[in-house]
TrEMBL record:
Protein name, UniProt field: Inosine/xanthosine triphosphatase
Species name: Marinomonas transparens
Essential cofactor(s): Mg(2+); Mn(2+)
Single Gene Ontology MF annotation: metal ion binding
Pfam families linked: NTPase_I-T (PF01931)
Its job: Phosphatase that hydrolyzes non-canonical purine nucleotides such as XTP and ITP to their respective diphosphate derivatives. Probably excludes non-canonical purines from DNA/RNA precursor pool, thus preventing their incorporation into DNA/RNA and avoiding chromosomal lesions.
Lineage: Bacteria, Pseudomonadati, Pseudomonadota, Gammaproteobacteria, Oceanospirillales
Keyword tags: Hydrolase, Magnesium, Manganese, Metal-binding, Nucleotide metabolism, Nucleotide-binding
């Protein structure tokens, strides 16, 4: 019988739950993966506007999840935070991922950048959320729980879920090869 890995995802968003579950199933193909989801506050703005704020949001969410595990039943806590920043190449959206083991080892990773149209970035600077802006521009509903801005701007060649999954897969390298990450 395969060993079970229990993960707690710091979001009720089905995209984030699916990405975390898929990443762990890919990394641990000989294990059963059980996922539970909790609403974990980021303690940052609803639309983080810097890399630092986005990173902090993911780390805050993952630490919150760990604090909720009073029975010590979870093997890994996982959180994702989407954000925006302005780079030399222009404005972009991206995500930070945080993974915390039950032993207390924190791993933080980051996704690739998706360039944002200037008119979208200007609206974000005016305190609007990316999902709301994209829903309005593309006449969609609740896109952040579907393909996200990534799906819309890449004609679904990439999605919010695929981007989160990739970032988590890369962040899990130290779990697979701890002897190299001392």
């Amino acid at each position: 019988m395969p060993t079970t890995i229990r993960i707690c995802v710091g979001s009720k968003n089905p995209v984030k739950i699916a990405a975390a579950t898929q990443a762990f199933k890919t990394i641990f193909p000989d294990h059963m993966v059980q996922s539970v989801a909790v609403h974990a506050p980021s303690d940052v703005a609803d639309q983080p506007m810097t890399e630092a704020e986005t990173r902090l949001g993911a780390q805050n969410r993952v630490r919150y999840c760990a604090q909720q595990d009073t029975r010590n039943e979870i093997d890994y806590f996982v959180a994702m935070e989407g954000g925006v920043d302005e780079f030399e190449e222009g404005a972009a959206t991206f995500a930070y991922v945080a993974i915390l083991s039950k032993e207390g080892k924190l791993i933080t990773g980051r996704s690739a950048n998706l360039p944002l149209p200037n008119k979208v970035f200007k609206r974000l600077q005016a305190n609007e959320e990316l999902g709301v802006v994209m829903d309005e521009l593309f006449n969609t509903s609740n896109i952040k729980q579907k393909g996200g801005a990534i799906g819309l701007l890449t004609n679904h060649a990439a999605t919010r879920e695929s981007t989160y999954t990739q970032a988590l897969l890369l962040a899990l390298a130290p779990v697979l090869h701890p002897e190299y990450y001392l």
